[in-house]
Amino acid sequence: MTEVSTTIDNGVNVEALIAAREALTKAPQAAQFKWRAACEWKDGTHSHSTVESFFGLGEEQHRKTTFAFDADHPEIFASQDKGATPVEYVLVGLASCLTAGIAAIAQHRNIQLRSVTATLEGDMDLQGILGIDSEVRNGFGGIKISYDIEADAKREDIEALVAQSQKRSAVYDIVTNPTNVTVVVN
Amino acid sequence: MDRSGVLDERYDRVDDIARARRVPSLQLAGTPDRSTLDLNSLTDIGVRLVGRLAGITEDGKAQFSGSLRNMCALSDLKMRRLLDLIDEWARANDLDDRAEPPDRLPPTRLEEAPPLGMDFVRSGINTIVWAMGNRPDYSWLELPVLDRKSKVRHDGGIVCSPGVYLMGMPFLRRRKSALIDGAGDDARDLSAHLAAYLDNNVPRLSA
Questions:
Q1: Whether complex ipTM tops 0.85
Q2: What gap in Å lies between CA B144 and CA B149, rounded to an integer?
Q3: Each residue's pLDDT tens digit, B87-142
Q4: What is the C-alpha to C-alpha distance for residues A183 and B8, in angstroms, rounded to an integer?
Q5: Closest Cα of chain A to B2: distance in Å?
Q6: Could you tell me how many CB contacts below 8 A there are between chain A and chain B?
């Protein structure tokens, strides 16, 4: 890989990430993070969730603001449409994770990104969640993501960015591999 | 890979040596006609590709990862990069007229929606072959030279315990270190180091 003068700027502080990686290699305990969310039912299928604190680098971490999310079902579901559906939040999570990864990897590989947009679609057979057909799953039958990327790079290098982003994506892993979910009632 | 110098690539010139050392060993096809053996040729004879085994459900069914498409994309991209590198080397060394024109294998074909699970019994699978690679067992080694993952700590084969060396591991000093052909160059380097260590540390018996 040739060293290019660092006029490439995708806004990602790759040096900090590499330093963090080295530090955490020596202190794996500090790499144990916990991400959190809280959710409060409002009315009907509308709920309001917040995200603020998380645990990492050995201690509780706080943000300057609390992030807020409203979720609901659309009107054709006889609901109030006060927010995006939970499954759409999953698509947003996946898109955001992959897109952030593309930017970080592009920075590391000295590729200047000009624009990156993604469109996502998850197909769902409602016979699953409505309990009509037991052979149909509740979740997506499949998710398709299309990226439009303009960058100062060959097509294969752009494809490699997108492939590498999936390889190192948290949400892609959560969605494509099994994850233990434990639900308790206090 | 040998002629173009890829196999001689040194461990201290690689971007991420830890990752490079985890790369699985080369798949080799030993037929005299050198016919291609890849996932597409397996698919052609009726093999069905699925994602990595990700789990077994409570009722004993296999679960496969949904990342198969990306895994195949990553391999196809990596192969193309290697072939590009070899073609560039051939061009730079004026070998173009002696070689066949560059060609590329088609991308790995996959089903539109590869299965995410399988009931082996119902599917008629009677035999499972685990091809998981191997891991060294250093339980016999009574030296404090292992890291927290029980691998030997070393720098290009020079172990962190005086007079101790490691040989034959993947990308130990060069990409070819785990190959028979790689042993010679590595042994030369490490025995030079060992000789220097002996000269400086071991009192000579009278000549």
A1: yes
A2: 13
A3: 999 999 999 888 888 889 999 999 999 999 999 989 999 999 998 888 889 999 99
A4: 53
A5: 20
A6: 36
Q: Residues 58 to 77 of B: which have CB under 8 A from any A CB?
A: 63, 65-67, 70, 73-74, 77
CATH of the domain at A28: 3.30.300.20
* CA-wise closest residue to B22 among B156, B111, B133: B133
- How do B62-64 and B117-118 pair as beta strands? antiparallel
Could A172 and B74 be called an inter-chain contact, meaning their C-beta atoms sit closer than 8 Å?
Answer: no
d(CA A32, CA A177): 20
- The partner residue sitting opposite A160, judged by closest CB among B54, B63, B77, is B77
Q: Report, in angstroms and rounded to the nearest whole number, the Rg of chain A calculated over CA atoms.
A: 20
For residue A20, give its domain range: 13-84
Q: Which of A142, A175, A178 sits opposite B63 (nearest CB)?
A: A178
pLDDT tens for residues A27-71?
A: 999 999 999 999 999 999 999 999 999 999 999 999 999 999 999
Q: Helix (H, G, I), strand (E, B), or coil: what is residue B194?
A: helix
Count of domains observed in chain A: 2
* Span A66-80, pLDDT tens digits: 999 999 999 999 999
The SS3 call for residue A113 is strand
- Domain containing B198 equals 135-207
Mutation choice for B interface testing from A177, A180, A181 by most B CBs within 10 A: A177
Interface contact flag, B77 A163, Cβ < 8 Å: yes
Phi/psi of residue B101, nearest 5 degrees: -65, 150
Same domain, A26 and A65: yes
